[in-house]
Write a structure and sequence with these properties.
This protein has 11 helices and 11 strands. The chain has 301 residues and is of the alpha/beta class. It folds into 2 domains: 4-34 and 197-288, Rossmann fold; 38-132 and 151-187, 3-Layer(aba) Sandwich (Rossmann fold). A 6-stranded parallel β-sheet has the order 2-1-8-9-10-11. A 5-stranded mixed β-sheet has the order 3-7-6-4-5. The radius of gyration is 21 Å and the shape is globular.
């Protein structure tokens, strides 16, 4: 095993901040994108959602759960000034929620402000736990159905693979939820990738799917940072990973996907480069200190 080699399941451009931190800590980062985002064949539902968000008839939240969803909205917009129309509808009747800082930055790059970002946990669960609005309800008998025409709306442009956690949670809070398919994750290289940033000379080397799976099985990796449940499946389904490799999950859904495949991951406290680098340190310190004594994975705080 290359004692300090760490695989990050992102494309080299997206992995740059984490790769820089790993190098500072004397690791040898490499990357594997495995999957790429691509627009669905039918983009009209997403386009219609964006139109609705810019002209809401009732109080509306646009809930953006990834920077990729921002790229998808930009790709289907009717005009280049879509973001100005969207931002002009804020903060009433439209408000915009972002799952975390990276998504908020992606919106800001298009000139769109954000009204809510969870402070504690960048996930659907974190959004629901800190949700800033309480819908006033009359007594039980007079409670308005979320399906009623005047009920506030929540718009969710998400990956085809996204869980229903946010959708169900907002519906339980009384919102009429409109979920639409913003993008698909397809094996890399995608024939029509939603976005692709040009490589730079200092980018971490990239492995294709075959090489990444072989590296996981051979024991040549000290650690693997997994950034989505779908990428866990790409690496591990039908593949037997080396027992000597440490596994780091970007969040609880990814940790759950790794546990379902028999692994014991360390979970980063936040989906940030700093938290992921800390989780790599922790996981490898545990390995150097001997075998784990617990069957439960660890979340780094």
């Amino acid at each position: 095993m290359t004692a300090r080699r760490v695989l990050v399941t992102r494309d080299p451009a997206a992995a740059r901040p984490l790769a820089a931190l790993l190098r500072e800590r004397r690791y040898e980062p490499c990357t594997a994108r495995l999957l790429e985002a691509s627009l669905p064949l039918d983009t009209e539902p997403l386009r219609e959602m964006l139109r609705e968000a810019a002209r809401p008839a009732v109080p509306t939240w646009l809930c953006v759960t990834s920077a990729t969803a921002v790229h998808a909205l930009a790709a289907v917009a009717d005009s280049p000034d879509w973001s100005a129309h969207l931002d002009a509808a804020r903060p009433a009747p439209l408000r915009i929620a972002a799952v975390g800082a990276a998504t908020a930055r992606a919106l800001a790059e298009h000139g769109v402000g954000v009204d809510f970002v969870p402070a504690e946990t960048s996930s659907a669960v974190g959004m629901l736990e800190e949700w800033p609005e309480r819908i006033e309800e009359p007594g039980h008998e007079g409670r308005q159905s979320p399906a009623a025409s005047g009920a506030p709306r929540a718009l969710l442009p998400v990956s085809a693979l996204a869980s229903t956690t946010l959708e169900e949670g907002l519906r339980a809070k009384g919102y009429r939820v409109w979920r639409t398919r913003a993008y698909d994750m397809v094996p890399a290289p995608a024939p029509r990738p939603l976005s692709r940033i040009a490589s730079e000379p200092d980018d971490a080397p990239e492995l294709d799917r075959t090489a990444a799976r072989a590296a996981c099985a051979s024991g040549e990796l000290a650690a693997v940072v997994v950034t989505a449940p779908s990428r866990a499946a790409e690496l591990l389904d039908g593949n037997r990973p080396s027992a000597g490799t440490a596994w780091i999950a970007i969040g609880e859904p990814t940790a759950r996907a790794l546990r379902e495949r028999g692994l014991t991951p360390v979970t980063a406290a936040q989906p940030t480069p700093e938290a992921l680098a800390d989780a790599v340190d922790h996981a490898l310190a545990d390995r150097r200190g001997g075998p784990r004594t617990t069957s439960h994975d660890t979340t780094i705080q």
